Every structure is written in C-alpha cells, then in structure tokens.
Amino acid sequence: MRKPSRKSFVLLVLCVTVAGVAYEWHATPEAERSVVQQQAPPPEPTALATLQKLKQLGARWKRNQHGQVYWLFLKRLPLADDDLTVLKELPEVQTLTLRGVHTIKGNHFTDDGLRHVGQLKKLRYFDLSVNYHLTDVGMRHLESLKQLEHLDLSGCRRFSDACGKSLAQLTSLRTLKLRQTSFTPDVLTALSQLPELKYLSLNNNKGMWLDEKTIVPLEKMPLEELVNLRIKDENLPLIARLKSLKSLPFGPDRSIKDDQLSYLTHIRQIKKLNLVLTRGISDTSQLKQLRTLPELETLSISLGKRSEGDPLDRSGLLALAKIPALKELGIGLVNVPVLEAISHCTQVQKLNLNVDSSQFQPTDLAYLKEMSRLKDVTVQIALVSDDLWATLGKVKSLEEISFNRGWPPQKEPPPFSMTSLKQLQNLPHLKGLDLNGFPVTDEGLGYLGQCRTLERLGLNNAPITNAGLLQLRHLSQLKKFSFYGSKIDREPAEELHQFIPQCEIEDNWCCGCMTIYADRRFTQK
C-alpha cells in the first residue's frame, strides 16, 4: 500500500485545524462574538417636494421621529381627485381626514379619488364624513385597508347597503360611524362579519329599530357601544342578549320603568339613568338592582303621586347608599319618609328635590345635614321662606343653592324677610346662589355682601337700586353677577367693577344685552 505523501499529510492537518476553529466559533455565545453587525439604513424622511405639494393644497400634517408624514389633515379643502396622487408618496400615513370636502365650492372630489386612499396600507384612522356625493362605487377602493381601525362615514348620504360587502373586508375595524347615510338594518348582516367592531353609530335617518330580526346580527358583534338604536318598550328584553355592551344603546335621557331594569344590569359602565317607579313608594325594591352598576354617577327617579294610605317601602331607597360612584341624585315626588331614606346616601354631592308640598315643610330639609358630602342642592321655589334659609344655613357642606321654578313658572315672588338671608353667612363654602326672580332689596344686598366666598350670584328682576349696589364690593371671589330686569344703571355697575375687577357683570342697559367683562389681569394665573 502506498504511503501518503508529506504534502497530503500537511493538508489533512490543516483541514482538521480549520474544522476545529469553526466548531469553536459556532459554540461561542453570540454576545461574545466580535463580529460587527451591519445596521439597517434609517428610513427616508418625506421629501421636501412632497411637503411643498401638501402646503399648496392647504393641508396640515405631522411627522414622526424619522421625518415621515404619518398624520394628514385635509378637512374642508377644494380638492380634486388628482390632488390625492400625492398620497402615493406618503406610505407611512396612519391618520387621514377628508371631512367636508364636498361642502367647499370648487371641489372635484369623486369616487375615483378614493383609489389613491386605498394605497395607504398603514392607514388606521380615516374620517370621510360629510362628503355627500360619494357612492358605493368609491367604497370598493377602500377594501385593501386591512389595518383600518376607525372609519367615519357620517353625512355621506349616498352610501347604502350595497357597500356592506366592502365594509366587511375591513377586518381590523373597531369604530364605524354611519349617521345620516342611506344604510338600512339589512347592512347589519355584513357588519356582523367584523371580528373587532367595538363602536357602532347607526343611521338615525332610516330608523334602526331593535327587534327580533336586527338582534341576530347585532349579538354576533363584540359591541361595547351602540349609538342611535331605537327600542320600543316591548323589545327592551332583547338588550340582555348584547352581552358585551358597556353603555346604554339609547340616549341617557330616556326613562326606564323599574320592571325593565333587569334587562340593563349587565351593562356595567352605565353612568346616567332615568327611572320611573311604577308602584311609587309602595314598592322601591327594584332599585336594589342598581347596586350592580358600579359606575352609575347620575340617577333620576320619578316616584309618582302617592295615594292616601299607600305603604312606604324604604328598601330600594336605602340601597342607593351602596352605589359608590353615585354623585348626582334627582327624585320626586318627595315626602318626609322618602327624604329620610335618601339622606343615608352620604356619597351624593348634588341633589335635586321635587317635593310633595302637601306633605312637606321647609324645616324637613334638616335631614340634608346627614349628607356630609352634599355640595349642590336644588329645591322647589314654593319652599322659599324664612324657615328654608334657616334650615339650609345649617347644612355646612353646601356650595351651590338653586331653585326649580316648575312649569308654568310661579308668577308671584316667594315671600321672606331680608334678615333671613343672614343665615347664608353660616355656610363657609357657599359659591353659587340663584336668587333670580326673588324680591331681594338693598337690605338683602347688605347680608349677601357678607357671604365672602360667593363666586356666582343671580339677582335678575330684583328690586335693588344703585345706592345699594356697592354693598357687594367686598365679594372678592365673585366671578359672575347678573341682574337683568333691575333698575341698575351702568355707571354704578362700573364703579362696583372697580372693586371686583375679576367679575363679569351682566345686565341689559339701553336696548340690548350689555356686559362688563372681567379684567384678564385678575383672572389669569
């Protein structure tokens, strides 16, 4: 057998050495390698020529840290379709506003202009509202916007159910606004294919009613907010099937009967509610369900007229004290037992009472002292008397006092002695006082002038005179003062303003409304 040559032997040793070095290099942790990594070149900023085009259009824009336009505002500009060719030079745009182009004379914006918008692959927010000449044809150009999360089509009244298929392609959509369009309930089937849709504002022109037909696609959506949905009382139970809702699907001013409350208690973020107790104070137990609404802040309850001999059920009224977020409570018709029950709501800061005057006296408001956080109270003007001022003067937490004048408003001013206004000096935090239509005289101004914490004072139609006005000169915190309908002249009002220059003084001198505005040197911090 032939022996290997010396040259072959050296070559073999060299190969083994190289293989060993390669093994060691791969076995070495990446952090210990001394290999210099090549860094990717920084993104190119938006070209100056492109920015010049935007300037000529009248656009506003914002740029990111790399100098690229990512936010573009083209609201109410007389655009033409060709103007939007600039969008192909702005691939990083995530927010685009084209609201109201059709409201400006000289625009030539058509469906074809949306072809350029469809090139913005990173677009997330698009406001196309109030462009009422666009049609379903234009919507097809937007199907490629797979990252779009917010779309506002409000006021685009020619958009109809035919573009439902195009909307269904926008699978990242979370917010969709369709007010004042031509969509009907039939479009809901297409929208139910959007897996991320959280907010839907429906067309309020076509009457989107909740019924057995529309609930089927709606309950397939992960909706948290549903706006402009119309609901008849008999269909309120269907709301319970919209499991993901976090707010009411109708306006907060709509009244709900107590026996309908169970259909809403799964909506955890209700902040305002108007309730009617169908059995009055004979059965308030349904109010206990409100304890499941931890974010309820404003509650209005109508108790109805109490029949003679009706028993009082306090259980639901007492349960209101268990709603931690409740800050504003309106209730009527209130009698003494009802007021005693709600006085346990020590978390309430604003209270509006409509009392049953046949069963109520001003001194009964003494229960308000138990509401330690009460700052703002509104009562009926029929309660105004010397006893009322004496009673309110003992509710030390009060900051605002106002009156419900009813309808039609009471014509005769409430009777009380001017000296009773002295009781208001006992309120250390009083900021606002509504005495419009009250027979406050110059004597009364003397007592009010000692309420040094007052910031707002209304004395419209009060029989005060020029001579008494300066008694308010020590109200150094006063910011707004009105006395429409009085006989105060401008000159004494300006003299008062020299003492309290931070105050805005309103009256109707001569033949029109006049205002002495606050001196900004004293209002700006």
From TrEMBL:
InterPro entries: Leu-rich_rpt_Cys-con_subtyp (IPR006553), LRR_dom_sf (IPR032675), LRR_R13L4/SHOC2-like (IPR055414). Keywords: Repeat, Signal. It holds the Pfam family LRR_14. SUPFAM superfamilies: RNI-like. Residues 1-22 form the signal peptide. It comes from the Bacteria. Residues 139-424 form the Disease resistance R13L4/SHOC-2-like LRR domain. One of its GO terms (biological process) is SCF-dependent proteasomal ubiquitin-dependent protein catabolic process. PANTHER family: PARTNER OF PAIRED, ISOFORM B-RELATED (PTHR13318). This is Leucine Rich repeats (2 copies). It comes from Gimesia algae.
